[in-house]
Amino acid sequence: MSTKKTAAEKSRLAGTDTPDRANTNAKLDRLEPFRSDATGQALRTNQGVKIADNQNTLKAGDRGPSLLEDFIMREKITHFDHERIPERIVHARGAGAHGFFQSYGNHSALTKAGFLQDPAKKTPVFVRFSTVQGPRGSGDTVRDVRGFAVKFFTEEGNFDLVGNNMPVFFIQDAVKFPDFVHAVKPEPHNEIPTGGSAHDTFWDFVSLVPESAHMVIWAMSDRAIPKSLRSMQGFGVHTFRLVNAEGTSRFVKFHWRPTAGTCSLVWDEAQKLAGKDTDHHRRDLWEAIETEDYPEWELGVQIIEEQHEHDFEFDLLDPTKLIPEEIVPITPLGKMTLNRNPDNFFAETEQVAFCPGHIVPGIDFSNDPLLQGRLFSYTDTQISRLGGPNFHELPINRPLAPFHNGQRDAQHRSTLDKGRAAYEPNSIDGGWPKETPPAAQDGGFESYPERIDANKIRQRSESFGDHFSQARLFFNSMSPHEQEHIIAAYSFELGKVEREAIRAREVNDILANIDLGLARRVAENLGLPTPAKGTVAVRKTSLKRSPALSQVNLLPDTIKTRKVAILAANGVDSAAIDAMKKALKAEGAHAKLLGPTSAPLKAANGKPLAVDASMEGMPSVAFDAVFVPGGAASVNALGGDGVALHYLLEAYKHLKAIALQGEAEQLLDVLKLEKDAGLVAGKDVGALTQAFFAAIGQHRVWAREAKAKAVPA
Ligand code: HDD
């Protein structure tokens, strides 16, 4: 058995260590008979007939025509012809993983949801991360919102928390969702661009719809180019309710915080990755799980007592608003760990069907009009995407809790209901299945009995009317380099907009109302007249900055799981490589040795040295940092190798930590670079690691950014 298989096998086992799923493969197979393993099995048709020849169609003679009676060929080709299902309307590109959720304690004062009561209980989860705009085959690192959908397989039924990596949304009412999506999707005449929002229809729509201003500035920030799926925050976006056994309801906002910290790519890197490693995010997630660097997120809630619903400067029901953490801090509830990769992408990641309407007793909705519309949309879309109303029977969607009801038949029904009475009440089947009255635990679902006394109208509440204060709060909360990135992103995207009237409208009607400085810088970059003032009066708000919104404040205190490229050629000092690898391993970071080609190197001591890949095979954009060990011959070779020099310049330009050891310090002259907080050089590996690791821990050398602009990589 190979080492890789052992790791995969181990993580698979770890993922089943729950009261619900078994902790051995044998038990898993018993609970999940649909997981098919063909090892040692005969090749058969779908009717169970063993196949003798899978190479040749049945023909009249070896050079003659094929025969229609060849049921084996026809079955195979027919099935193949229907292999594709429609991709998701939005969020088509995604990656998924299994794991579990564990509560930190007993949260029964807050909710009667069973999975939040007992720290000993591990609730299985399946998570799917996604981009929004692009089709199934589009790039992972495009500028876009990321979906963050979690299915909790609780004992009381499935709870789906279908969120994003940003805490707000583009629109306030679900009826505008088709308009918004049609605008952001590629232009209808030529289906360009794939995966991005830098085009006329998107900016036409958002410049006409000021409620989108807050979410658009998030989408123009570094949050829209996350470093990895495991370095993203997640948000439930809407206000939900948690209800306890006494029937007390509180409003909550759900938050996922990655223990690995929240950080992003830089724009040039994101663009290059989209070509050099289209699968960058899904590969990173997959490999992290295979190497047992299990990604983790803390689930927390901001809690608002019912009587404080109207205490805010915005409406809790407005999904274009967040509650600053400085006003309502996050109460941690538990932790999610992803520790098992899917066995089959299609059966699990592609067929998983989320719906914000999948909730369990102890959780309830608010009247957010965006959420209310979503409650309808998801089930509706599954019906056409997954071919009928029985998608809940697909293995990945099946709740662990049993399900019995009077629903019958329809396409792809796989349950064989034994009873005679598919209706309720009945006497023929003894009245079964029966309702369960609500109870403190294990009761039937009961909606929170909110009192409603209102006119039936199509109208938006005036309390939804402030579209710019929180966009401004977000901009003001950014560090200077984050602000620069936002200005650059608006300038880049609007620069791709062909119609000048749209560019001008976004600058004058939206950006000038968020922040005049921002609007002026973007106007300047677009060659537009500088706006003199906004079109809407600035509202007075109590909070000017929310530090919790800046990623500068969300870094982890560790270099665990970070990836370092070691560049070497023949004659390298292998002792320096060993010392660096050892130091990285001690910190839980990973190293890959890269040579000019994939062929083994000859170290200075004459010994052969296997490399992990060539420098072209694993480009600098796939790493967090670069180390160049000494060894005169190796450094000489690298100094004359355009690929190696470009590698280092690119890492420098992307503000990554670089350590040059021994003779490698000479490369500073070749590259015409000066040392800085993250570009370190020295003889002793041990001494180098201190500054090198500190710089990796800071994620990027932001102080270098202005200088790095001049580097032509
Ligand atoms: Fe949505 C998919 C998140 C508004 C309609 N949405 C989808 C997915 C995520 C979100 C993460 C992918 C789930 C997966 O991985 O399979 N959507 C959101 C968030 C929203 C939001 C956080 C606002 C706060 N969505 C929204 C509205 C509507 C939809 C207002 C319709 C009225 N969303 C859909 C959909 C999708 C979907 C068309 C496509 C595939 C699917 O549902 O299963 O129904």
Automatic annotation (TrEMBL):
EC number assigned by the record: 1.11.1.6
Stretch list, region Disordered: 1-28, 423-445
Signal peptide: none
Function: Decomposes hydrogen peroxide into water and oxygen; serves to protect cells from the toxic effects of hydrogen peroxide.
This protein's name: Catalase
Lineage, opening ranks: Bacteria, Pseudomonadati, Pseudomonadota, Gammaproteobacteria, Pseudomonadales
Record gene name: katE
InterPro entries, per database record: Catalase (IPR018028), Catalase_AS (IPR024708), Catalase_clade2 (IPR024712), Catalase_core (IPR011614), Catalase_haem_BS (IPR002226), Catalase_immune_responsive (IPR010582), Catalase_large_C (IPR041399)
SMART domains per record: Catalase
